[in-house]
Fold this protein.
Amino acid sequence: MSLALSPQPPHAPDPPGWAALELVFRVLGRVLLVLDEDFRILRASQTLDAMGCPGAAQKAIGRPIHDLLDTHVFGPKEDLRSVLELGGREEGRRAFLHCGEQGSRLVALTVAALPTDLCGFCEPGARCLVVIRPAEEDLLVLQGAMAAQGIVARSKSMIRIVNLVENLYRSEVNVLITGESGSGKEVVARAVHALSPVRDGPFVAVNCAALPGDLLESELFGHVRGAFTGAVKDRVGRFELAAGGTIFLDEIGEMTMHSQVKLLRVLEARRYERVGESTSRELQARIIAATNADLTEAMHAGRFREDLYYRLRVVPIHVPPLRERPEDIEPLAQFLLAKSGARHGAAVRLSRDTLRALEAYAWPGNVRELENALEYAVALCKGQTVQVEDLPIEIRDVTHSAPSMLRQAGSLQAPLPDDEAAVIRRALETHQWSRTRAAQALGMSRTTFWRRMRALGISETPPHPV
């Protein structure tokens, strides 16, 4: 949180009862913020220093709330502002608390408009309260629900997706999911469906790349007998089958321009006709689309309609490739290993060297490749522990050459001494357990530094308060 760039307003006297509130919130381990009608921070409890960074409470005074918390929560167009302006209350919102050089911390929020008769008691000009608490326990519950859908998240990018999916639970708007092949787009789509108002309805998936344009229209809309050669009886389309649920249009970027026009009309009118029929039917399904193509480039090249793109992209979700979220490799591997072991009737685990091998590999095929590699390893594993030699050869080859590859790529400025763990711990202690600054001091990227911590069994949290 960069809040020291301009002079701070003078500290106002504590309102009556503030000292008691400070004590209560310190005991509870919570942060209390008081905001004015412009969502600027009038007062912050000292517990913000412990949860954020030293001096954060004083630096926050007079600043907009989005200097402290993500703008997607308190942004000018966000519905949370409307809730507060109407005198409402909301609990359970998640956001990232900016903690200066220490990075960001996931927190949970309770926000409430301050009743008019209490405004004078709290602070002149006070209009709403924000209570901040660590989100670790809430996140475990949420991740448990998401894991049931196949989403396992530890990285910040995937946690953002988990939060976004959760925030969509009351909505049936169209969603466009982008990401490389095998990154888990359909898994995210199923999670959006499972945590939505139409979760009790069907989830119907259609691969738009698997069918030519004329057959795709029949597949989506259905057809009547005699509509074309071979149409010997009426057929119900996927839109109709998905009524009351979700239709998932995978590889939407491969749809022909003619089919795009037909789909656009459906999205605009919320109605469609079976092929060969003039009777109009109402679209009663939520639409989620996905693609591994760059639709922006496709629009510029004239291969994808701009109006259709924006109709589908009401809520965009980008699933990053696995190589950009190495923190997720271990929990994903454990999750997928348990699934594979259950199918094979075996309870297996990963050796430490195997886990290091998985984390060193780039995963061009993303999560799908990781799942296939673990299936392969479980099939070859002779005991209850998957060893490096059980992995596919391309992963073993990368593992054997990983140290030299890292240095050639400039991830390390110089080889670390034999007692690497001691060097890393000393760097963490010197820099108040900030992984970013410790990594910079050792000439590593933050990702490489994190991987070395994991490989050497170094805790991500300090052994004592710093």
